Amino acid sequence: MKQVSEKLRLQPTGEEQKRMGKRSTENTEAYQLYLKGRYYWNRRTAELLKKANEYFQQAIDKDPSYGLACAGLAESYALFTFYEVLSPSEACPKAKAAAKKAIEIDETLAETHAGLGWIKMTCDWDWPGSERELQRALEIDPNYGTARTFHAVYFEAVGKPEEAISERRRALEAEPLSLILSASLGRSLYYARRYDQAMEELRKTLDMDPSFVEAHLYLGWVYEQKGLFAEAVPELRRALSASGGGARFVSALGHAYAVSGERRMTEESLMRLKEQAKQQYVAPHDMAEIHIGLGEKEQALKYLEMASAEHSCWMIWLREDPRFDAIRGDPRYLDLIRRMHLTP
Which of 11, 133, 177, 194 could form a disulfide with 116 if both were Cys (CB 3.0 to 4.6 A apart)? Predict the structure, then answer.
């Protein structure tokens, strides 16, 4: 009797069957394309995110009612500003449109609500709205690591570092082999100024994959804050090389050159960013990062004002990033934080 009861309990209800049908697709090719998209989405470089976006779109072309593919497209566009593939004014409308379509297909997808939470946070600075969407995603699927890691970003932005770390750990428990979740835990520990623990976690990530670009970037940040410039600069060079020369990696290396007294190399980094900006989107935050490293507060604040005006994604960490400690007491910095609807 107990076995029969368990068997019955494990049978999906009519509503569950309906939901699973919308999540899945009968088109094998669309499913394979979606899986490829998710694989590249989790590798997290600008070029691979673009490839992920293409695969999600191809999956939708094969099956326009494929909810997960629409959610994947929304999440890829939602990260385009983070990786500077597109400017916020270009990426955010595309992300919102894809998320809207995913909701129309199936509003019970955790992936869609997680993407919406990220969009509300980074594009709109709508903190209550972001929290609602991320909570909804976790109600649907408590083990969805991306929802937890986006929720951790929310906690970082609103000044709750311990809650952020807790969410990162729960995400990693659900997906222990995820490189991006492991590296992101290291980043949260960095923002919490727990540098030794951050270093330990990031080395674990690199043990899994020595080429993972995000881990090299964050480890370089950690070395820099510990004053280990001889270790920070090579680490950030590795990140820059592995990223294919991404602007935010140029700026991270430029900042390290600046604080370690390498003026000539810092100037080269600034020039490189200016040249890149002629061909592609470069966030003003990147320029601010180098100028703050040089101690040029006026220039840094000018670029941060520009970044605020366009809702640059990296602005949400401005309050937590130790590299910007030098301007914490400046009234203009405090005004920036207030305009982001955050408490200084």
Answer: 133
Same fold, 29-141 and 144-209: yes
Instruction: Read off the DSSP letter of residue 12.
Output: P
CA-CA distance, 93 to 97, in Å (whole number)?
6
Is-contact 112 103, C-beta < 8 A?
yes
At 309-328, the pLDDT tens digits run: 999 989 999 999 999 999 99
| pLDDT value of residue 23 | 57
What is the sign of the dihedral through the CA atoms of 46, 211, 185 and 223?
negative
Buried b (16+ CB within 10 A) or exposed e, 82-102: bbbbbbbeebbebbbebbebb
CB 137 within 8 Å of CB 147: yes
Question: Tokens at residue 78, please?
Answer: 């939602």
SS3 call for 13? coil
CATH of region 144-209: 1.25.40.10
Instruction: Using alpha carbons, select from 202, 210, 248 the residue that is nearest to residue 226.
Output: 202
Q: What is the pLDDT of residue 294?
A: 97
Query: Which backbone phi and psi does 27 adopt, to 5 degrees?
Result: -90, 105
Indicate whether this model's pTM tops 0.70.
Answer: yes
Which residue from 83, 119, 81, 84 is spatially nearest to 98, judged by alpha carbons? Answer: 119
Q: Tell me the CATH class for 29-141.
A: mainly alpha
Q: How far is CA 98 from CA 85, 104, 116, 201, 281, in A?
A: 17, 10, 10, 34, 22
Segment 177-221, tens digit of pLDDT: 999 999 999 999 999 999 999 999 999 999 999 999 999 999 999
Domain ranges, ordered by start, for the chain = 29-141, 144-209, 223-344
Question: Are the C-beta atoms of residues 72 and 111 closer than 8 Å to each other?
Answer: yes
Structure tokens at 145: 């690591």
How far, CA to CA in Å, does 145 sit from each of 24, 116, 292, 312? 19, 15, 34, 24
